Every structure is written in structure tokens, then in C-alpha cells.
Amino acid sequence: MKQVILDAEPRSSFGKGAARKLRASGSIPGIFYSSKSSPVPLCLKSADLEKVLKDARGGTEIITLNIRQDSGTIKKMTILKEIQRHAIQRTLLHADLWEVDMAKELEVEVPIKLVGKPAGIDLGGVLEQLRREATISCRPDNLAESIVVDVSSLNIGDTLHVFDIQPGEGRRIVADTNYAVATVAAPMTEKVEKVEEGEIEGIGEEGKEEK
């Protein structure tokens, strides 16, 4: 398993004003969550977190979180659960990290990547991806960057459902319903009916309504 490391410090100042100052200095606020302890507010370097987002494949890799305190560094195995970005500038605003138990399964949303050319494409069909993520359950050291699904066998009218997907050894799909993931739709056809001049009842030769 690839090791991804993120350093952090406890945060003691709160509120919008404190968050603005933090971001102006190149850091952002964050929170560490654990089922074994109370949440810990954090200060994270924006540049470090951006690098982690690349190394951790957008949140599907375990992150070793080093919380540096005066009494020493606390090491926690975590997963990036949520990030917030500025709507326009796309700069980081906030991050949530959750502690994981390496001996227990966890549920994460993973992107669905369709590969292959469906058989129905040559007949004029159109491949439509209806869902782009699926939830899987697995051990933290068996997380997947994406679920790769071969759709080359799909013909016109065929639909791939979530329970048709094989997420890989040691992983299982988690879903309440067998929802559709992709389908090959029939080609669109337009029927244009030509209307002869004067063919519509009540319309004269000059296109005026007859009285």
C-alpha cells in the first residue's frame, strides 16, 4: 500500500475571521474525527493537502495524519472524507479526515470507469453512463482508485446494473437497490411529415382562413 503522509497542527482559533486569516497564511481549517475520541480541530497547509489529493487519488487511499503537538506527534490512519473548495477560484477551504481501523471494512464511494466499445455502437446506439460512482465495502488496505467495467458486450437496449459489477477481490458493492449504471440507447430518429399547400382543412390557396 502506498504511504501518503499529511502533517497537521491542532487549531485553537475559530470562527470566520480566524478561518480567513488561516487561509491568507496558506493554511486551511480541518477536523479530525474518530469513533474513539472527540473531534480535533486542525490547521493544514493548503499546498500539502493539494499534494495529498493527488497522491491519495482523490480520497481513495489511506492517509497517515501526523498531528504535531507540544507533547509530541500523534500518528493516525485516516481517510479524506470531505473537502470544500471555493466555488469560483477552486481553492481549498476546509477538510474533514476520519480515523479508520485497518482491521475493519469501511464503505467508500469510488468512481466507475467504463471501458470498451459497446457492440450496439456499430448499430447506431449511444452509450449513456447514468451513474458515475458506486459504494464499495473493503479493508482500508484494499481500496480502489476506480471500478473498471468492460461494457463491450452491451447491445442496443442492454443495461448494466450496479449488482452486475465485480469490484475486485476482497471488495463488495453496497447498494439498497440494483440501480442502472449504464445503458446503450437506441438511435434517435425523426419523422418529418410534409404537408402539401392547401392540405390543411380551412386554409385557402393564399394561406388565409376561408370564411
Structure description:
Helices cover 9% and strands 42% of the residues. With 211 residues, it is mostly beta strands. It has 2 domains: 4-99, Ribosomal Protein L25, Chain P (Beta Barrel), CATH 2.40.240; 106-185, RNA Polymerase Alpha Subunit, Chain A, domain 2 (Beta Complex), CATH 2.170.120. The longest helix has 10 residues, at 46-55. The model is unreliable at 190-195 and 203-211 (pLDDT under 50).
Q: What's the CATH architecture of the largest domain?
A: Beta Barrel
Large-scale geometry: elongated
Could you give the count of β-strands?
Answer: 13
Tell me the CATH topology of the largest domain.
Ribosomal Protein L25, Chain P
Q: What is the string of SSEs from the N terminus onward?
A: EHEEHEEEEEEEEEE
| CATH homologous superfamily heading of the largest domain | Ribosomal Protein L25, Chain P
User: Treating each run of at least 4 consecutive H or I residues as one helix, how many helices?
Assistant: 2
The main β sheet shows up as: 6 strands, mixed, barrel
**Structural category:** mainly beta
Integer-rounded radius of gyration: 27 Å
Number of domains: 2
- Poorly predicted runs are 190-195, 203-211
User: In whole angstroms, how far apart are the ends?
Assistant: 85 Å
The helix content is under 10%
Give the C-level CATH assignment of the largest domain. Answer: Mainly Beta
Report the average pLDDT across residues.
86
- Physical arrangement of strands within the biggest beta sheet: 1-3-2-6-5-4
Beta-strand percent range: 35-45%
Please summarize what this structure is.
This protein has 211 residues and is mainly beta. It has two helices and 13 strands; from the N terminus they run E-H-E-E-H-E-E-E-E-E-E-E-E-E-E. It has two domains: 4-99, Ribosomal Protein L25, Chain P; 106-185, Ribosomal protein L25, C-terminal domain (RNA Polymerase Alpha Subunit, Chain A, domain 2, Beta Complex), CATH 2.170.120.
